Amino acid sequence: MTDKPLKSHVRPPQDTMPGGAGQGCPAPDAQTRSIWRRIMDDFADHCRARSLFVLHYCTGCGAIELPPTITSRFDMERVGITPMVTPRQADILLITGYLSLKTLKRVILSYEQMQGPKYVLGFGSCTINGGMYWNSYATMKRLDQYIPTDLFIAGCMPRPEAVQQVLLKLIEDIDAGRANAWQDYYRNYDFYLGNQQRLFGAGWNTPTDVIGEARHYGYYGPGTEGEHTRLLAEGGGSAARLAHAEYPSTALTGRIKS
Amino acid sequence: MSIPARLNEVLNELPAIQARPAGARRVRVDVAPQGLPALLELLKGRLGFIHLSAISCVDWIEDGQFELVYHVWSHEMKLLVSCHVRIAREPGVYVSVHDIHEPAGFFERDIHEMFGVHFDGAPSMEKFILTSWEGPPPMRKDFNTRKHVEETFEWVDYRPDWLKDIERKGGGIES
Ligand code: SF4
Fold it and tell me: CB distance from B140 to chain A under 8 Å?
């Protein structure tokens, strides 16, 4: 979609970041991104790639291939990958198959709760082009239109070997600082939000203030805001404020208004 | 398999009913729309058909009819009876049987949402499972799923530029 920097620590200089200053969060100063900082970042990437928690979002048939992937037959823990039960503690969101529009909403909510850096894997043909549900009115066709997806695993359904391959590829990418699709959600939020609104209506909203986060992390780009995010504002304030009215206090654990 | 005598006895009490065996432990009964509530009531009261496992609906668009199938099971007789009725597609109105089988309310609401059949006297005809859905009932045969999908979703680009580049160099995925 956009030119992605090769390394996660390559960010725009501070003065090009709207809202970068005065947000209560010390934006990284160009000077401090010294060699030392870069070595630290590379080291962090290297370590991160060796300890990954996966949230299996088992919506489709392919979920049946995950127990053998995780347990003794293929044992992904050998390479530092283990299941996690909540999105907030997970690094990888593994979507195993078709997503109905109703489920897609929940996936987006889960994704937005995950802490960066986060990675999305689309498992099975259904996440790539709708698979055998290509002409169903109720399922989405391309996962990467709604949340940035790092890698896809083709097949219906892919075998554990394929899952293993893609996880190894992800490890390689993280280690090399290439797995940066998650930053695209901030840089091009308007694109993703527009696609979401197309399915869920102009009133679609989530409790996460993605634009605020984009500023906070320094990933605010020309595509962060646009005609679609304006609809959020028209709804009476920032995404977060509007959403809090809709999802009271227990915003993310409570019942989701559909 | 033939129809058990006890069942035959009950069926003979009702007018305009056709019954035939439809496999082991399964009987198909065709009944006129006005006769269905009485049939379900008799089956339930006399032969223990207390379990309504499902109501299904078929859209026979060419005949201008909806077919409703009520599947009831008797633990006593260990038998499934499928009661078929056909109603006019327009206006697509039928009567609720939730006073005989309470779970019917659930199935009727579902059929209302998917096919647009209205059940008089049903506890609820509100929206049910489909969310963010403004279109017509999607399981009706006159709903053009393909057109809807083409208008709502974007297809994957099966021949992206990078593939064309590879093809120009003699590679690619086509044999
Ligand atoms: S890709 Fe195949 S196995 Fe996977 S969810 Fe779709 S239909 Fe099921």
Answer: no
Asked if residue A98 has its Cβ within 6 Å of ligand 1, the reply is: yes
Residue B22 belongs to some domain of the structure: yes
A172 lies in some domain: yes
Q: Is B171 within the bounds of a domain?
A: no
Q: Does the beta carbon of A97 sit less than 6 angstroms from any atom of ligand 1?
A: yes
Q: How many domains does chain A have?
A: 2
Number of domains in chain B: 1
Q: Render pLDDT for B48-61 as a digit per residue (tens, 0 to 9).
A: 999 999 999 999 99
Residue B84 has pLDDT above 70, yes or no: yes
Local structure of residue B151 (DSSP, 8 states)? H
Q: Is the pLDDT of residue A13 over 50?
A: no
Amino acid at B48: G
Are residues A226 and A107 both part of a single domain?
no
Which of A179, A205, A239 delimits the end of a domain?
Answer: A179
Residues A244 and A257: their CA atoms lie apart, in Å, by: 12
Query: Is any Cβ of chain A less than 8 angstroms from the Cβ of B156?
Result: yes
Chain A environment of B110 (Cβ under 8 Å): none
Tell me whether residue A82 is in a domain: yes
Residue A90: burial class (beta carbons within 10 Å; 0-12, 13-18, 19+)? buried
* Residue A158, ligand 1, Cβ within 6 A: no
A with B: how many residue pairs have Cβ under 8 Å apart?
A: 43
Does residue A148 share a domain with residue A137?
yes
Give the highest mean pLDDT range of A36-40, A58-62, A222-226, B154-158.
A222-226
Task: Work out the minimum CA distance from A147 to partner chain B, whole angstroms.
Answer: 15
Q: Check CB contact of B162 with chain A, cutoff 8 Å.
A: no
pLDDT of amino acid A27: 52
pLDDT > 80? residue B1: no
Query: Do residues A50 and A172 touch, judged by C-beta distance below 8 A?
Result: no
- The H or E element spanning position B83 is strand B79-88
A176 Cβ contact partners less than 8 Å away, ≥ 6 residues apart: A45
CB atoms within 10 A of CB A116: 15
Quick check: pTM over 0.90? no
What pLDDT is recorded for position A241? 43
For residue A12, being part of any structural domain is answered with: no
Å from A111 to nearest chain B CA? 20
Point out the domain boundary residue: A156, A179, A202: A179
More confident residue, A111 or A245: A111
